[in-house]
Amino acid sequence: MTEGLFSADMMFVTAVFGMVAVTYSLRAGGYWIMGRLPITDRVRRGLEALPGAIIVSTIFPIVLKGGVAVALCLVVAAVAQIKLRKEYVAVFFAVGAAAALRAAGL
């Protein structure tokens, strides 16, 4: 291992390039496979539901770990999004709710 500003261990560099290759292969392979499958109504509905499923699977563990305050902020953000249809405004409402809940001791 050499010393310097941009020095890196060869195992680290190999690992990074390996992760890049696997990630690219999976993404390109997905596009390749989907380009050869017929898009039936069932497949289309599944693809349309996928973003929501990804969001729920990402947020659910955070809510479970964060407790009541995080769950209430999520509810505030969801209600604001449904009523106003503006994502950034919903985020600001959730941040405001989080600040108020933390100030209240939750």
Furnish the topology, listing elements before pairings.
Elements (H helix, E strand, L loop, with lengths): L9 H27 L4 H26 L1 H17 L2 H17 L3
Uncertain segments are: none
Largest sheet: none
SSE topology string: HHHH
Can you give the mean pLDDT? 88
Number of strands: 0
Structural class: mainly alpha
What shape does the CA trace take?
A: flat
Number of helices: 4
Cα-atom radius of gyration? 22 Å
This entry's quaternary arrangement is single chain
Task: Give the % helix.
Answer: over 70%
Distance between the termini: 49 Å
The share of residues in extended strands comes to under 5%
Q: Could you walk me through the main structural features you see in this protein, from its secondary elements to its overall organization?
A:
With 106 residues, this protein is mostly helical. It has four helices and no strands. Helix 2 (41-66) packs across helix 3 (68-84) and helix 3 (68-84) packs antiparallel against helix 4 (87-103). The mean pLDDT is 88.
